[in-house]
């Protein structure tokens, strides 16, 4: 029997190799992919988030854990799709136009995936039109916008304005984050929420989904 | 040449002297004696290193080491380096004599330095230094750009007025033949009155980053004025002038010039030419976003040692400790690592970690340091892996303790590192003194330089995360 507690540890310690090998072993033994995610990987990422909050972990540890989880998820994803399992929700994520920084955005994307969301990652320097296209095409529930530079924050506002013009603003919840972004700025530009870090972003996304499908 | 300096709050006298262009051949460690100046009026106390390097008679005559200088009141010193016109730069400054006086200006985000130069002899006759008056509209270039976008033209007016007053004092009623300026790309645009919109977003490439000439009637000082061209992206003419001063364009071997500040800028020379890049570090090295962070002035911890197995802080001015500056922060982290009080992943065993009475280091301070040094080291790894020698430009690089910088993995262990003093100012002066070959040399440097956008490379993100670890690294 695969020792599944080791999957939890591998994600928590950012050990991608072990995470992948244990997942393989567990699948060979016929474990339920959904159970691996919800009982081991999501709690491990929650613990990673907790350790980040209390300053025990920092960005490098977060990246390693996210990478470990991603490795395991790649094995599970095709199985989940085949079984018809529904994701917790669909999130379109990207760093706004003019900004190339995507470490923070990648972290949020990984944490959301770990939290059971389907994530459509548009990358960095994303124009409003591309967000709109992705929302329409993928029928996304949530859009997550990231910016690291103070000078690119206005692009968040312009993206939300473009959603209104395109008539899709009511269809999606918009959350924003990034080093210079504040809750007050999020309110000013008409976002639905602000995530201070990757863990907060997952909690926020869960709230959005629960409010829509109580 | 006599230089009179008034104390500026938040700045050490040594720093003011260095900014004014006094060279510290050993990088300000107080070990070579090459920066000696003679006090003409006022007081500079003779500290320990000065007593070792200068004789009793010399001390009595007023000789002091500029790199160790601290003063409570205004002082006037005679700078031996300048009147002898022998610079510590390998080349010295070749002079192509012409009539009149010119001014060389290093327009920094934080500080301004203007030297009046005798164009026939190359002698530096007078110096003015000041804090950049734009600073009250934002400490770093990004906040200035943002301010300029909301209040177009205001920062241009502020800087021209301030330089106007400085140059009026420098000129002392005499006409000026020429004024030459260098500064980073944001300072270039703000001085020249150019649209900063391109600097506010990807790809951060402005179509107007070339040299700018102004006829006398457009400037408050009524002299032909030239702002030197930017090297590329956020790498400005301060680095271009640094290339001139360190002769990076004329050496075929692998050498790098590295300016550490809120923005790190790197130029590396190889047989294929020059490559340059910038990387955003945040304000940690200037004491920003650090709980007890402050600038390097009286009361700041600027060095940390281990004494009897415990951390011992050195405070500038032998005063009561008030906070910690960038070099102190790097030192503190290095020594805490040595004592096992800090782990390579950045975790403080004891949080907060006391350094001196009322000054402590917090976990979040270490995280800020990791971000800043991670960005710098990642930039170096991307660009300078082949370099065998690094020269450090900028104030921070000249006060940083190299051993500590290597210990925390800010600088590579296996590369020779050497402070370059105020290379920007020296380069501007060299270009001012060689008018006929100037244009050709600048054109050649620009043609051989390639600007690399680090953030656009996916490898950079991984290197950045990896470089946040507080441990030594090597290029080879």
Helicity level of chain A: 55-70%
How is the CATH topology of one domain in chain B named? Ubiquitin-like (UB roll)
The amount of beta strand of chain A, in percent, is 5-15%
Q: CATH class of the largest domain in chain A, anyone?
A: Alpha Beta
Low-confidence segments of chain A, given as residue ranges, are none
How many distinct beta strands of chain A?
5
State the oligomer. Answer: heterodimer
- Quote the average pLDDT of chain A: 90
Radius of gyration of chain A: 17 Å
Gross morphology of chain B: globular
Give the termini distance of chain A in whole angstroms: 37 Å
Give helix and strand order of chain A, one letter per element, not per position.
HHHHEHEHEHEHEH
Could you list the spans of chain B in which at least 5 consecutive residues all have pLDDT below 50?
A: 84-91
Spatial strand sequence of the major β-sheet of chain A = 2-1-3-4-5
The largest contact between protein chains, plus residue counts on each side, is: A-B, 21 and 27 residues
Through-space gap between termini of chain B: 46 Å
Which range does the strand content of chain B fall in?
Answer: 15-25%
Give a verbal description of the structure.
- The complex is a heterodimer of chains A (214) and B (476).
- Chain A is an alpha/beta fold and 214 residues long.
- Chain A has 2 domains: 5-83, Methyltransferase, Methionine Synthase (B12-binding Domains), Chain A, domain 1, CATH 1.10.1240.10; 90-212, Rossmann fold (3-Layer(aba) Sandwich).
- Helix content of chain A is 58%, strand content 10%.
- Chain A has helices spanning 5-12, 16-28, 33-53, 59-83, 103-114, 128-138, 153-166, 183-188, 198-212, and strands at 90-95, 118-121, 142-146, 173-177, 193-194.
- The radius of gyration of chain A is 17 Å and the shape is globular.
- Chain B is built from 15 helices and 21 strands.
- Helix content of chain B is 31%, strand content 23%.
- The model of chain B is unreliable at 84-91 (pLDDT under 50).
- Among the domains of chain B are: 1-88, Ubiquitin-like (UB roll), CATH 3.10.20.30; 292-361, no CATH class.
- In chain B, the strands form 5 sheets. In chain B, strands 7-6-5-8-10-9 form a 6-stranded mixed beta sheet, with helices on both faces. Chain B has a 6-stranded mixed beta sheet with strand order 20-19-11-12-13-21. Chain B has a 4-stranded antiparallel beta sheet with strand order 1-4-2-3.
- At the A-B interface, helix 4 of A face helix 5, helix 10 and helix 15 of B.
């Amino acid at each position: 029997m695969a020792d599944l507690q080791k999957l939890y540890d591998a994600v928590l310690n950012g050990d991608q190799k072990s995470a992948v090998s244990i997942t393989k072993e567990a699948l060979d033994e016929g474990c339920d992919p959904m159970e691996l995610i919800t009982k081991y990987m999501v709690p491990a990422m929650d613990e990673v988030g907790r350790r980040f909050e209390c300053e025990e972990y920092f960005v490098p540890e977060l990246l390693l854990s996210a990478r470990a989880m991603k490795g395991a998820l790649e094995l599970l994803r095709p199985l989940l799709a085949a079984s018809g399992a529904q994701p917790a929700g669909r999130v379109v994520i990207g760093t706004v136009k003019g900004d190339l920084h995507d470490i923070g955005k990648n972290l949020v994307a990984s944490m959301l995936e770990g939290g059971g969301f389907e994530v459509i990652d548009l990358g960095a320097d994303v124009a409003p039109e591309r967000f709109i296209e992705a929302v329409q095409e993928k029928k996304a529930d949530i859009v997550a916008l990231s910016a690291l530079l103070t000078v690119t924050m206005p692009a968040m506002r312009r993206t939300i304005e473009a959603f209104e013009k395109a008539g899709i603003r009511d269809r999606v919840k918009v959350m924003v984050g990034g080093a210079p972004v504040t809750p007050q700025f999020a309110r000013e530009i008409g976002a639905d929420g602000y995530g201070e870090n990757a863990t907060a972003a997952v909690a926020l996304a869960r709230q959005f989904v629960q409010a829509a499908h109580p | 040449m006599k230089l009179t300096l008034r104390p500026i709050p938040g700045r050490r006298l040594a720093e003011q002297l260095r900014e004014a262009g006094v060279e510290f051949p050993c990088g300000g460690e107080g070990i070579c004696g090459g920066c000696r100046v003679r006090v003409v009026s006022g007081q500079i106390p003779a500290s320990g290193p000065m007593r070792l390097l200068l004789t009793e008679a010399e001390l009595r005559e007023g000789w002091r080491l500029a790199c160790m200088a601290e003063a409570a009141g205004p002082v006037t010193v005679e700078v031996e380096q300048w009147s002898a016109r022998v610079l510590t730069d390998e080349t010295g400054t070749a002079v192509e004599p012409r009539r009149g006086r010119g001014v060389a200006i290093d327009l920094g985000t934080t500080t301004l330095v203007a030297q009046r130069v005798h164009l026939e002899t190359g002698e530096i006759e007078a110096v003015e230094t000041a804090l950049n008056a734009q600073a009250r509209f934002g400490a770093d270039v990004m906040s200035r750009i943002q301010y300029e976008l909301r209040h177009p033209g205001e920062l241009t007016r502020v800087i021209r007025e301030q330089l106007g007053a400085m140059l009026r004092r420098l000129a002392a009623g005499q006409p000026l033949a020429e004024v030459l300026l260098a500064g980073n790309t944001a300072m270039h645009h703000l001085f020249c009155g150019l649209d900063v919109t391109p600097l506010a977003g990807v790809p951060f490439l402005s179509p107007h980053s070339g040299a700018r000439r102004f006829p006398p009637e457009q400037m408050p000082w009524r002299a032909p004025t030239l702002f030197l061209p930017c090297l590329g992206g956020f790498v400005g003419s301060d680095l271009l002038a640094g290339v001139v001063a360190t002769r990076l364009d004329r050496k075929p071997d692998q050498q790098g010039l590295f300016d550490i500040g809120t923005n790190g800028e790197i130029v590396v020379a190889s047989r294929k030419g020059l490559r340059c890049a910038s990387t955003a570090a945040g304000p940690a090295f200037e004491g920003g976003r650090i709980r007890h962070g402050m600038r390097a002035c009286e009361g700041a911890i600027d060095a940390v040692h281990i004494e009897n197995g415990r951390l011992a802080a050195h405070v500038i001015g032998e005063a009561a400790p008030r906070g910690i500056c960038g070099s102190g922060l790097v030192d503190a982290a290095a020594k805490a690592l040595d004592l096992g009080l800090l782990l390579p992943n950045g975790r403080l065993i004891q949080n907060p970690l006391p350094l001196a009475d009322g000054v402590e280091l917090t976990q979040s301070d270490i995280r800020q340091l990791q971000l800043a040094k991670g960005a710098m080291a990642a930039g170096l790894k991307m660009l300078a892996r082949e370099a065998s020698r690094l020269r450090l430009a900028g104030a921070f690089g000249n006060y940083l303790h190299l051993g500590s910088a290597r210990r925390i993995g800010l600088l590579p262990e296996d590369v020779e590192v050497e402070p370059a003093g105020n290379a920007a100012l020296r380069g501007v002066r060299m270009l001012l003194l060689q008018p006929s070959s100037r244009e050709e040399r600048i054109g050649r440097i620009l043609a051989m330089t390639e600007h690399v956008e680090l953030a656009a490379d996916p490898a950079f993100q991984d290197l950045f995360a990896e470089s946040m670890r507080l441990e030594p690294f090597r290029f080879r």
